[in-house]
Each structure stands twice: as structure tokens, then as C-alpha cells.
Amino acid sequence: MTTTLPFPRTPDPRTAPTLRWGVLGPGYIARESVTALRAETDQVIQAVASRDLTRAQAFADEFGAHTAYGSYEELVNDPDVDIVYIATPHSEHHAQALLALNAGKHVLVEKAFARNAAEARDILDTAKAKGLLAMEAMWTRFLPGIDVVRQCLEDGLLGEVENVFADHGQPLYPGGPQRLSDPALAGGALLDLGMYPTSFASFALGGIDTVTATGRLTDEGVDAEETILVTGTRGGRGLLHATMTTRTPTTASINGTAGRLELGDPDNPSSSWYAPSRVRFVSRDAQTDISWEPESRTHGLHFEFCEAARCVDAGLTESPLLPAAETLRIMEVLDAVRADVGVTYPGE
Asked: Quick one: DSSP state of residue 192?
């Protein structure tokens, strides 16, 4: 009888090879990421760039970056930068990733990796041709708790996976960041929030085969909410939901013939399944009910940076934890969702 869940195999972040990072876009997610990096790793923030030099300098002063630049071109051509973290709006990822790759720099690109699959394919093909790493910063995939889930799936603890449920809702519209309502910046719920349950479903189901979706749009023409039905390559199904108009429980579960895994804690309003959170296993007969708890819920964004550093050190152009083909397939699924819901972005 199972009495404990597997211990995560995630390496100590302090053991990751130290890289010199350049940060493109000193906004909210960059601040959260660099805060975690400084607290939990030995990575170096070498440079930061913004189109507004004053903004870049303020970020550099606050977080100890060695150099601030008022253009992205200057940063990617800095010989002291090993890898570029792209934390700008989704609409900019493609051009900026190519800018960095063509300057010979590895890239860690915030999720969603690009606006669409065509842009993602271009980035990944360019990186492979140049022998550089291009990795999606889907931080959930690299958390210790997800490795607990990974081992449970590998060991067959759940039996045959039959369905996955995952939800992500935050009250970000109206009144939230302006970019979320702007089609020109690839706004909407899907690329910011919906991609979490989509990526999770692909992970849990061994890939996504088919997708259908329904949703509603804002007056500006971006998606406010979507409900997504997917089938996995092994036959399981997923029911996924995202909204930027209300706060939802933000829980997830993987349900199999021998039991289920639950992520998140609905009794804790600050707990979200996609962040460091509890992993709970309940057997089919409910006689076994065991949990794994993270050592800390304070940080989590740093794990993806450490994975990127290990990949660069090993000479890899993609991470085995989130391969290029998986990133591309998820972008294809997101494209299909947008087609069903009726969202297009200017310039596509």
C-alpha cells in the first residue's frame, strides 16, 4: 500500500551553473522572477533593457543588475550577457526572441511563448539551427510538486488516466493591466491564464489530440473567458477553464482508474495549483489519502531559470522537461481555442 508520495527529484537551485542574465522588459513578472532568483539561486542579473532607460536604470538599481540599457539591441549585443529572459507582452516575444538568437544569445521566453504556433515554430527552428537554447518560461512545469506528479504518473499510481480538470480565474478585467484588454498586445484570458490549464492537461494526458472551445469576448475583442474540452493522445479527456473577470478556485486534478491527484487547496484562498502547492493522492476506494507539501510557497519562478542554466551548460537546445515539440503543440492548441472563440490579433 502506498504510504508516501514520491520525493521530488528537482535539483537544488544553488547547484545550477551560474549564468549572466539579461532581462528584456522590467515589468511585473520580471520583478517577481528576479526577486526569486536573488533569494534562491546564484544566478547573476547582468543587464536589463527597456525602451525607457530611466525605467531600466531603476530596475537595475533595485535588483543589482550591472548594466541598464535603453534599447533591446544594446542588451542582446552585450558580450557579458549569456542568456536573455524575455518578459515583455506576448505580441513582442517573436521579434525579441529572434533578435536575441540572431545575436548569439540563448533565450528563456515568458509564457505564452508567442502569439501563435507559426511564431513559436520560427523561434524554435532558429534556435535549433544556431545551436542555442529556446525555452518557454512555463514555470509550473519545473516546480518540485510537478515532479511529484510526474513520478506518480510514471509509476502508474493512478492507473489509467481518464480525465483532467484544471481551472484558472483571476479578476483582472476590467480594471487590471491595460495590455490584457488590448488585441494589439495579444491580450485576453487565454495566453495569460488559459495556457496554464492547457499546458497542465497536455502534461497529464501525454499530449493533446483534439480540442474544442467556447467562450465570450470583451468589448475590445479579446477573450474574457473560455471553457476548453480536449482529448489526450492516450484517450483521456480534459475539461479546462480560464477567466479574467472572476476569481475561481484555481484547483486541478488528474483522475485515473486507481485514484486521483489533487493540486491546490480550495480551503486556502492564497493557494493556486499552478504555484508551489499541496499534491494530494486519494485512492479509488478512499482508503489511502496522502499528501506532499512544498518546503516553501514563497517562491517558485526560479526553478525554470535553473533548468535553463543546466540545459545551457549541457549544450541542449531544449529542455527535456518541456521539449520544443510540446511548446509548439500547446501553441497549436491555443490557436485552435482562439479560432473557436473568435479571437484574432492585429498583424497575424
From this structure: I
Spatial separation of the C-alpha atoms in residues 29 and 49, rounded to whole Å: 14
Query: pLDDT digit string (tens) for 239-249?
Result: 999 999 999 99
Q: Please, which pLDDT band fits residue 1 given cuts at 50, 70 and 90?
A: low
Mean pLDDT of 197-201: 98
In a 3-state reduction of DSSP, which class is residue 155? coil
pLDDT score at 223 = 98
Enumerate residues 6+ apart whose C-beta is below 8 A from 307: 16, 135, 142, 319, 321
Alpha carbon dihedral 309, 314, 316, 321, in 10-degree steps, equals -60
**DSSP conformation letters of 102-126:** HTT-EEEEESS-SSSHHHHHHHHHH
Q: What percent of the chain has pLDDT over 90?
A: 95
Residue 5, Cβ density class (10 Å: 0-12 exposed, 13-18 middle, ≥19 buried): buried
What is the rounded CA–CA span in Å between residue 100 and residue 76? 5
Q: Which amino acid is at 283?
A: S
SS3 18: coil
Centre a 10 Å sphere on the Cβ of residue 229 and count the other Cβ atoms it contains. 15
Which CA distances in Å does 198 have to 279, 289, 326?
A: 19, 27, 11
In this prediction the pTM is 0.97
What average pLDDT score do residues 316-334 get? 98
Query: C-alpha cell of 259?
Result: 485514484
Q: What is the DSSP letter of 17?
A: P
* Per-residue confidence band for 270, with pLDDT thresholds at 50, 70 and 90: confident
State the Cα–Cα distance between residues 57 and 74, nearest whole angstrom.
14
Contact yes or no for 271/265 (Cβ under 8 A): yes
CA–CA gap between residue 268 and residue 121 (Å, rounded): 39
Annotated active-site positions, please? 111
Cell of 86: 524575455
